[in-house]
Amino acid sequence: MESTIRDVFRHCIRFPVPISASVVTEELVDTATDKRCITVLARWSQCDLERGMKLHFSQRWTLLCKHDTIEHVLPSGPSSHIEKELLSCQSPSGTLQAVIREEAERQYLEVWGQNGLEKSLDLIALNKHGKVYEDAQFACLAWSPCEKKLLYVAEKKRVEPSAQSSFASASEDGGLVLLEEQDKNVYIEDWGEGLVGKSCPVLCVADLLKAAVIVYAGIPPNISPGQALWGPNGRGVVFVGQWNEPFRLGLKFCSNRRSALFYLNMKGNCECLSSDSMSVSSPRMSPDSCWIVYLQGQVFGPHHQCLSMMLYDMKNRSTSVLVDVVRRAEKGQFAGIYESLPSQCWSADSERIFFSSASENNKAVFSVNRTTGRVTQVCGLDVLRLDDFGSVQLLTIQKDLMVMSCSSPNQPPCLRVGFLSTVDQAEDLQLCNLGGAEVYEEFYWQPMLITPPSQEENHQFSGLNFGAILLKPYSPQERRKTPLVVNIHGGPHSHFAADWNATAAALSKLGFAVLMVNYRGSTGFGQDSIESLLGNVGSQDVKDVQRAVLCALHNETTLDPDRVAVMGGSHGGFLACHLIGQYPDFYRACAARNPVINAATLLGTSDIVDWRYSSVGLQYAFDQLPTSQSLTSMLEKSPIIHAAQIRAPVLLMLGGRDRRVSPHQGLELYRALKSRNTPVRLLWYSDEGHSLSKVNTQSDCFLNIALWFKEHLN
Q1: How many helices (H) and strands (E) does the chain have?
Q2: What would the pLDDT profile of 34-59 be if each residue is shown by its tens digit?
Q3: What pLDDT digit, counting tens, does each position of 285-319 carry?
Q4: Which of the following is catalytic: 690, 691, 699, 712?
Q5: Is 570 one of the catalytic residues?
Q6: pTM surpassing 0.90?
Q7: Sign of the alpha-carbon dihedral angle for 43, 45, 50, 53
Q8: Of residues 224, 658, 662, 691, which has the active-site annotation?
Q9: Considering 255, 279, 347, 570, which one is annotated as catalytic?
Q10: Bridge partners, residue 56, by sequence
Q11: Catalytic status, residue 304
């Protein structure tokens, strides 16, 4: 059995996933007929179970185009393994490639051209800053318009005291912090889960002609810069500044942190371009350098939310709302913006902005007209020429050529490219296949839209639907009814799109049906759905999952109601443990990854303490102190209060370095179950964080989950 499970998981996790794409060159072949050659570069991630690591590789395709039609795609040839790259960026002309690479604890800035390596800077030897940032919250790598400078973000340099050093002040460029002897053990804050060790980012510019690096001064000390890009003509830098006072809160998966858009000129003058009381992300400059779009949300409240798209007019220095927050959407309509914009998202004429976003159980690509603000679905489910893919993710649009990653629960990712000539007509989108897996796995899937019964309505936010996605083998094994695994996403303000999910696919291939639930509070259903969960965790979301399960069992008579298991991570683990406590005779087994078990005891250990208050319906402020009432509310909404009723065997998987949900949460349930002789098994991954994302960990978790469910569902 173990070897079968390993083989199935190896099969499902081996499919490459595209992580970025770019249009690297364009060459006019025939002026009379407007024939062009366009080269597209894609970067992929692939899990290698044998080595226990994620590999990255690149592929190139040459497209033969006439006007806005792709006539032929030349074969890509073999893939190229990418080693130890942290960041990379193509120059505006397409002739140079910048790479930041890490080898043996050293970091190098490399520039590659047509004749190989043209420049290499040892950033550690230059000693201007600490490690370069490569994360999604702060990192950037951007060429100046003149292609002589590169902009990136790194940790501020700290110089440890030594016997030879005196107590000097910080350097003039603001790039160094010299620690006094008495300060060597002072606590240094960081930005929490996934950003451990990242505390004081600085904007850095590498001057390629001088082979030198400078650290920009002028940014207020209470602001941490990131997501930077060059201003018009390279005369300044636009960046997102995160407030780091009075203290830092966890940033990953949180779009509710106070931040603003800033402009820093070459003289060190820093100006705020946006509201300074909101949350800001994803600034993107138009090709004509006249406009910046960025995303904006509220501070505190839901940790993730429906965002508005803002438009900044560089000439008139004015800001307007381009796409507002969507409170709720009609079935199949645009439901709002929930994720970062692609790094290249503008049409060539600077008139349209393109992006992907969750829409009910799917993910689709949309465009917005800069002048009218009209939002149009460009491609996705029910739009022509995408073969009913459940998820379409825009990777880039350059020179009006769109590159998209398309997948479904039974179809691993593949790349599609196409020109878009008329934004309002989806029929104008001519798509070609580039690469990826052309595989259809042997199970089917269907989306579900569920209306809560009257007794489960939230009367403050009435009339809200929620969703689910059911995966089901084509035929039950041994002609028996099919066991059902209920899979619950974390967040809670997250989303299961109908895309390729290796875990769900592998469970389906092992004979389980899988129900992935987007309960009220998930993204993709409007801001009202998100806000409806505040103060109702542990009840509304629990009832939604149970309602989805009952609907699936009612609609699919081949599912076995006597063999139902539940699994989830983080808030999904919180809900899984609630379900087996609130419905102790219904579920036969449970698997929970880093679950929230007792919100009251988590209050002092989580990197997102604000969410602990917001989740139970309380306002948060930095100077907040716990009260008996707030702690009681957190406890009453926690799974631990139902621990005495739990009968289902529980498998716990905990990350020893989890900063978001302390592993002591899982240990609290483990001890409660052990003392009551309830079957429980705990897996401890000492060097893992919240996501349990290392390849070997993913494999081990899946093996144990599958064996656990096979054993207890018989």
Answers
A1: 11, 38
A2: 888 999 999 999 999 999 999 999 99
A3: 999 999 999 999 999 999 999 999 999 999 999 99
A4: 690
A5: yes
A6: yes
A7: positive
A8: 658
A9: 570
A10: 45, 82
A11: no
